[in-house]
């Protein structure tokens, strides 16, 4: 298994994510993908103060649905779920995950982040060890325009 200090080899942009926000993004991304069958966000911007995710959807997500997503994520945070990583070959990963966004020059070994039974995806970023480290998750705004749903969120 690779040590944390080698994470920059997996993260070619050498981007330093804020682990609680990055982990919250995984939870929201996974749940929106499941609920709306739209795949993970096609565009994201993850920062310490606030973050955003953009999805292609045929209709806007309602205020009630946004509150339901918020409650769902906060429930997982309160469960104190373990966040784990495993390394798989690309061949193994493609059997259960979408690997289409991997760069062409990616190594044969990929890193998979799992948050209990709630989310599992390829990722080179930095995460918390348990969901209770995330804090309170809050959707602060959303916008729907031309088939694109944007969700902005922050942690308190």
Can you give a write-up of this model?
- The protein is an alpha+beta fold and 156 residues long.
- The chain has four helices and seven strands, in the order ααββαβαββββ.
- It has helices at 7-10, 19-36, 63-79, 90-94; strands at residues 43-45, 51-56, 83-89, 109-115, 119-122, 137-145, 148-155.
- The strands form two sheets. Strands 1-2-7-6 form a four-stranded antiparallel sheet, covered by helices on one side.
- The radius of gyration is 15 Å and the shape is globular.
- The protein starts with 6 loop residues before the first helix and ends with a strand.
- Mean pLDDT is 90; it is low at 1-14.
Question: Would you kindly provide a brief summary of this structure?
Answer:
The protein has 156 residues and is of the alpha+beta class. It is 28% helix and 28% strand.
Total beta-strand segments = 7
What fraction, in percent, of the residue positions are helical?
Answer: 25-40%
Major sheet: 4 strands, antiparallel
Q: Give the quaternary arrangement of the chains.
A: single chain
Mean pLDDT: 90
Question: How many helical elements?
Answer: 4
Order of helices and strands: HHEEHEHEEEE
C-alpha Rg (nearest Å): 15 Å
Low-confidence segments, given as residue ranges, are 1-14
Beta strand %? 25-35%
How are the SSEs ordered, and which strands pair?
Elements: H1 7-10, H2 19-36, E1 43-45, E2 51-56, H3 63-79, E3 83-89, H4 90-94, E4 109-115, E5 119-122, E6 137-145, E7 148-155
Antiparallel strand pairs: 1-2, 2-7, 3-4, 4-5, 6-7
Helix pairs in contact: 2-3
């Amino acid at each position: 298994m690779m040590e944390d200090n080698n994470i920059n080899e997996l993260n070619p942009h050498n981007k330093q994510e804020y682990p609680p926000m990055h982990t919250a993004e995984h939870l929201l991304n996974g749940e929106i993908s499941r609920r709306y069958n739209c795949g993970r966000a096609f565009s994201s911007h993850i920062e310490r103060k606030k973050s955003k995710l953009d999805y292609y959807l045929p209709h806007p997500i309602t205020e009630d649905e946004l509150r339901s997503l918020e409650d769902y994520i906060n429930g997982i945070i309160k469960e104190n779920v373990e966040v784990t990583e495993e390394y798989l070959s690309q061949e193994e990963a493609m059997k259960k995950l979408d690997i289409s966004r991997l760069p062409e020059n990616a190594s044969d070994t990929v890193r998979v982040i799992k948050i209990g039974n709630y989310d599992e995806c390829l990722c080179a970023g930095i995460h918390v060890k348990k969901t209770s480290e995330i804090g309170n998750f809050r959707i602060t705004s959303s916008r729907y325009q031309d088939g694109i749903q944007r969700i902005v969120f922050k942690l308190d």
